[in-house]
């Protein structure tokens, strides 16, 4: 009987805990010095959200998180009086959203901000995923025309790989995932590091690989989420020719008066992407050949020793 009661209690606790979720949809917020930033936290599963205690934390790079304030049904309560002019917090009465406002942004305000909810019933504190505040005069950008999802590579050990290449975005806070047509997420993805091909323009790029069975009949999509834009891109057909995805007649005019067509630049970027793709395939093929060679060398002495003189 005691065991049954424990099982029932654990089920109730797990059910109640699983219903609460804090969602911070903004991966990042980019603002210049002296500007104002607003960071949202959407709650679900919290009964009587108007009276619930929502906390806000700040975590600077290399430091532990520190609480800034908490808010219930009235005005926010600050941990430090010096933060009263810097921050403000409110709840929307018509929906379960808490918003943290950062005023007169300074360089040391650059950090990741987390919302949290303390569930007194179960003694658990729930945290959001965090929103990164970047202090920069460069505006956030994302060029959806600079996305390629390349066809599958050559088969190796019954597996094929797809590559999603995303270029020309800022800041470098981005989330890339893979899903099929039924919106089911794929976990067999490898995300490469973000690299900066042009430091002068602060333009970042990222590649993501998905390896699946060659007999998989699913149609995969590369899903991306960025401060400026979010969406997904299907895999390109192997028969689709590689062409520039810029608008015709779009011309860049540098300060020295020389005109450079963006078609040439895009063509160069696309060729570079395919060269990277081919080099990685050749690299994996070389590893495969080397492994076969060593297996052959290891088996050859065994065969010679087995022969009678």
Brief sketch in words of this structure:
The protein folds into two domains: 21-135, Immunoglobulin-like (Sandwich), CATH 2.60.40.10; 141-249, Sandwich (Immunoglobulin-like), CATH 2.60.40.10. Strands 2, 4, 5, 6, 9, 10 and 11 form a seven-stranded mixed beta sheet that branches. Helix content is 20%, strand content 39%.
Structure description:
- The protein contains 2 helices and 23 strands.
- Residues 1-17 and 239-271 have low confidence and may be disordered.
- With 309 residues, the chain is an alpha+beta fold.
- The chain has helices spanning 2-18, 262-306; strands at residues 21-23, 28-31, 37-44, 54-59, 66-71, 77-78, 87-91, 97-102, 111-119, 124-127, 131-135, 141-142, 147-150, 159-170, 174-180, 185-186, 189-191, 195-198, 203-213, 220-226, 230-234, 251-252, 260-261.
- The chain has 2 domains: 21-135, Immunoglobulins (Immunoglobulin-like, Sandwich); 141-249, Immunoglobulin-like, CATH 2.60.40.
- Strands 2, 4, 5, 6, 9, 10 and 11 form a 7-stranded mixed sheet that branches. Strands 12, 13, 14, 17, 18 and 19 form a 6-stranded antiparallel sheet that branches. The protein has a 4-stranded antiparallel sheet with strand order 1-3-8-7, with no helix packed on it.
- Helices cover 20% and strands 39% of the residues.
């Amino acid at each position: 009987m005691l065991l049954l009661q424990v099982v029932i209690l654990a089920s109730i606790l797990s059910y109640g805990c699983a219903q609460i979720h804090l969602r911070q949809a903004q991966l990042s917020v980019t603002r210049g010095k002296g500007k104002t930033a607003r960071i949202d936290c959407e709650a679900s599963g919290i009964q009587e959200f108007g009276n619930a205690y929502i906390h806000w934390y700040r975590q600077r790079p290399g430091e532990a998180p520190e609480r800034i304030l908490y808010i219930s049904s009235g005005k926010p309560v600050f941990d430090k009086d010096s933060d009263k002019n810097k921050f403000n917090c409110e709840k929307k009465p018509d929906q379960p959203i808490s918003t943290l406002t950062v005023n007169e942004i300074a360089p040391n305000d650059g950090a990741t901000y987390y919302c949290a909810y303390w569930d007194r019933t179960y003694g658990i504190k729930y945290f959001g995923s965090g929103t990164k505040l970047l202090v920069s005069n460069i505006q956030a950008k994302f060029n959806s025309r600079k996305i390629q999802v390349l066809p599958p590579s050559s088969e190796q050990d019954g597996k094929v790989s797809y590559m999603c290449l995303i270029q020309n975005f800022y800041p470098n806070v981005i989330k890339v995932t893979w899903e099929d047509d039924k919106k089911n997420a794929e976990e067999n993805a490898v995300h490469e590091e973000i690299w900066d091909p042009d430091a002068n323009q602060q333009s970042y790029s990222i590649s993501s690989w998905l390896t699946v069975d060659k007999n998989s009949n699913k149609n995969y999509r590369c899903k991306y989420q960025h401060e400026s834009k979010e969406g997904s891109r299907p895999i390109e057909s192997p028969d689709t020719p590689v062409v520039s995805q810029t608008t015709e007649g779009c011309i860049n005019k540098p300060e020295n008066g020389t005109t450079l067509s963006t078609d040439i630049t895009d063509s160069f970027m696309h060729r570079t992407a395919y060269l990277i793709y081919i080099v990685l395939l050749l690299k994996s093929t070389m590893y495969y050949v080397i492994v076969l060679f060593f297996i052959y060398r290891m088996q050859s002495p065994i065969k010679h020793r087995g022969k009678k003189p």
